[in-house]
Write a structure and sequence with these properties.
about 130 residues; mainly alpha
Length: about 130
């Protein structure tokens, strides 16, 4: 082998060694990136599981809220029925009280009329007794 060929061969080997060295660095960087990606994927999987649990909790809460709303609707209906019943009872009692007051008014008028008649009669009797 000639010196020129030997130098050329040595240059190519140096170049190959340099390339292999760079490849090793690149492989190490890629390995580090893959390890980081694996960690990120594991974190994402954990986050997804947490989100799934949160969604399940929200669904349960929503079901409870729906049940509470249904119960409130039922209670509101019952309250409306009770209010209607109370209004009817109040109206009936009002009419009853007004009827009794009317009877009392009539009784009072009769009493006053009789009192006036009696007072007049007493005055007539007094005048007759004085004569």
């Amino acid at each position: 082998m000639t010196e020129k060929q030997f130098d050329r061969f040595e240059g190519m080997l140096t170049q190959l060694v340099s390339m292999v060295g760079h490849l090793k660095q690149d492989v190490e960087v890629i390995k580090a990136d893959v390890a980081e990606l694996k960690t990120d994927v594991a974190i994402l999987k954990t986050d997804v599981e947490v989100l799934k649990a949160d969604v399940a909790d929200l669904k349960l809460d929503m079901a409870n809220v729906k049940a509470d709303v249904a119960e409130l609707k039922s209670d509101m209906f019952n309250v409306k029925v009770e209010i209607t019943d109370m209004r009817e009872t109040q109206e009936r009692q009002h009419n009853e009280v007004m009827g009794k007051l009317e009877l009392l008014r009539i009784d009072q008028e009769i009493t006053w009329a009789k009192t006036v008649e009696n007072e007049r009669e007493i005055e007539r009797v007094k005048k007759q007794l004085q004569m």
